[in-house]
Design goal:
Elements (H helix, E strand, L loop, with lengths): L2 E6 L2 E6 L4 H8 L22 E4 L6 E2 L10 E3 L3 H17 L14 H9 L15 E2 L5 E4 L8 H10 L4 E4 L6 E4 L16 H5 L5 E3 L11 H13 L5
Parallel strand pairs: 1-5
Antiparallel strand pairs: 1-2, 3-4, 3-5, 6-7, 7-10, 8-9
Helix pairs in contact: 2-3
Length: 238
């Protein structure tokens, strides 16, 4: 088994070939912020929060989908990267309707956590206040598109672990949105098994259990651990 050696923020790392820069950073104890990354499912590089600088390459690379190579010299905390990450989070807040004081995930939201980590205390961008709907047609769950950040974690968990293929992304740019079925109300999608994996995978309060109110959505650590190991251990039910 081939091993690659590289440095991350000056720390020497030896890691298995085929690993990503995000894997290597974790091995080095270096924290890189992420939102679309979820252990146990494939990475897509959607949120762009994990961008890093690699010596000799004149563009920023997403750590979650960039494989390690021999001799890489990686920087993860430069002033440029910190500015870009802060701007990315500001854009996420300004393009949606994230009213934390009334959100089910308030206090237990990965978007909030990342905003604190990158030092965001306001957005320099004008808020768009898009007109987005809430779908509560499912008997157990609901989806509030105002809080969605298009990380696609729900899509990948449903496809790769549950195998139900309920969720997908429709549209492009500002019109992009998560849809259930062929843009049907969630409650009318026969493929949904009501497993709740998408609820646990969602990093914000976008997908939630009915009956929860402000700050009541909490991650089930046992279910998250199951999601991480389901594909490798071929354990599809819990």
């Amino acid at each position: 088994m081939s091993v690659k050696t590289l440095t991350i923020d000056g720390i020497d790392i030896a890691i298995e070939e085929g690993s990503t820069l995000l894997d290597a950073a974790k091995e080095a104890g270096v924290e890189i912020p992420t939102l679309c990354h979820l252990e146990g499912v494939s990475d897509v590089g959607a949120c762009r929060l994990c961008l890093v600088e690699v010596k000799g390459i004149n563009k920023l690379l997403p750590a979650c989908v960039t494989e390690v190579s021999e001799g890489m010299e990686v920087q993860t905390q430069t002033a440029q990267l910190q500015d870009y990450r802060r701007m990315t989070v500001e854009l996420l807040f300004s393009e949606g309707n994230h009213v934390c004081a009334f959100c089910v995930a308030n206090g237990n939201c990965e978007l909030q956590d990342v905003a604190i980590a990158v030092g965001m205390d306001h957005s320099r961008f004008e808020y768009r206040f898009p007109n987005r709907e809430v779908d509560i047609s499912h008997p157990q769950f609901g989806i509030d598109h105002n809080r969605c950040i298009l990380c696609t974690r729900c899509v990948r968990v449903c496809d790769q672990i549950e195998g139900a293929h309920v969720w997908d992304v429709s549209g492009r740019g500002g019109t992009a949105k998560i849809i259930s079925g062929l843009n049907q109300p969630w409650g009318e999608v026969d493929a949904c098994t009501s497993c709740g994996k998408c609820v646990n995978a969602c990093p914000t309060g976008s997908i939630f259990r009915k009956g929860t109110t402000t700050a009541e959505k909490e991650s089930d650590r046992e279910k998250l651990e199951f999601l991480v190991n389901a594909r490798t251990k071929h354990q599809w039910t819990r």
